[in-house]
Amino acid sequence: EAGVAQSPRYKIIEKRQSVAFWCNPISGHATLYWYQQILGQGPKLLIQFQNNGVVDDSQLPKDRFSAERLKGVDSTLKIQPAKLEDSAVYLCASSSLALQETQYFGPGTRLLVL
Amino acid sequence: AQKITQTQPGMFVQEKEAVTLDCTYDTSDQSYGLFWYKQPSSGEMIFLIYQGSYDEQNATEGRYSLNFQKARKSANLVISASQLGDSAMYFCAMSSRDSSYKLIFGSGTRLLVRP
After folding, report:
1. Residue B86 backbone phi and psi in degrees, to 5
2. For B90, which residue in chain A has the nearest alpha carbon?
3. Which of A58, B8, B31, B82 is the most buried (most CB within 10 A)?
4. Does residue B115 have a cis peptide bond before it, meaning omega lies within 30 degrees of 0?
5. Angstrom distance (rounded) from CA B87 to CA B93
6. φ, ψ dihedrals at A105, nearest 5°
7. What is the pLDDT of residue B48?
8. How far is CA A66 from the centre of its chain?
9. What count of Cα atoms within 13 Å lies in the side-chain half-sphere of residue A46?
10. Backbone angles phi, psi at A38, to 5 degrees
């Protein structure tokens, strides 16, 4: 069974530029999560989708971050414009529809904003 | 609000010995899950073990076991027979219905296995 796929793996941009990350969850997984992990910290949830609907986006900085989940499968996370403090690893995870199910993570995208 | 506390920023263990990584949690929810993940230097989060709040037996997965003490709100990870490949960051996390099942992570413990 293929795992969660993410691209790109690394990205370097200058502040005020825009960037987009892509995630393809495990086949059949209805729930998709985007987490931000700043160096030295545990991941923090940015947004949670169930199928193509948003369940929780309370921690998403909506003035600069946006996310969508196309047809309930792939998802993209966009930052526009980027700030220095957005430098982090962006992790995508997915889980099945059942409650309390384990979340499986992709390899992450390391973003450096200069 | 849910909270996970990992008080050990770093730990050393000798190869082939057992090690315990501490985790305490705080929640008012009656139904919750506790997870441990391993994060090697490559960055991916690898699921290790899960314990449900209503599970009476401690969870085990190969060399990993979870020492669940509900009254003390602790969920310590025990790694037996440590291997060099166990050197990584380890994160304790919880999810609950009140938090829409998103994972709340601790700050992590860096484990270094010495040969």
Report:
1. -80, -10
2. A42
3. B82
4. no
5. 19
6. -105, 150
7. 97
8. 10
9. 26
10. -80, 145
Q: Which of B89, B102, B105, B110 should one mutate to test binding to chain A, selecting the residue with the greatest count of A CBs within 10 A?
A: B102
Euclidean distance between CA atoms A35 and B37, whole angstroms: 14
Of B31, B91, B97, the CB nearest to A42: B91
- Mean confidence (pLDDT) of chain B: 95
- State the burial class of residue B83 (Cβ atoms within 10 Å of its Cβ: 0-12, 13-18, 19+): exposed
Asked whether the beta carbons of residue B43 and residue A110 sit closer than 8 angstroms, the reply is: yes
SS3 per-residue string spanning B39-69: ECCCCCCEEEEEEECCCCCCCEECCEEEEEE
Q: Does position B112 have pLDDT exceeding 70, yes or no?
A: yes
Q: For the segment A12-71, what is each residue's pLDDT rounded down to a tens digit? A: 999 999 999 999 999 999 999 999 999 999 999 999 999 889 999 999 999 999 999 988
**Closest of A106, A109, A107, A89 to residue A44, by C-alpha:** A89
Q: Which two tokens stand for residue A113?
A: 């904003």
For A96, the closest chain B residue by CA position comes to B101
Q: Which of A45, A48, A102 sits opposite B35 (nearest CB)?
A: A102
CA dihedral A49, A54, A60, A63 (to 10 degrees): 130
In the 8-state DSSP scheme, what is residue B56? -
How far is A38 from chain B, CA to nearest CA, in Å? 11
Nearest CA in chain A to B41: A107
* Token duo for residue A29: 């997984």
Can you tell me the distance from the alpha carbon of A4 to that of A33, in angstroms, rounded to the nearest whole number? 11
pLDDT, tens digit, for every residue of B51-83? 999 998 999 999 999 999 999 999 999 999 999
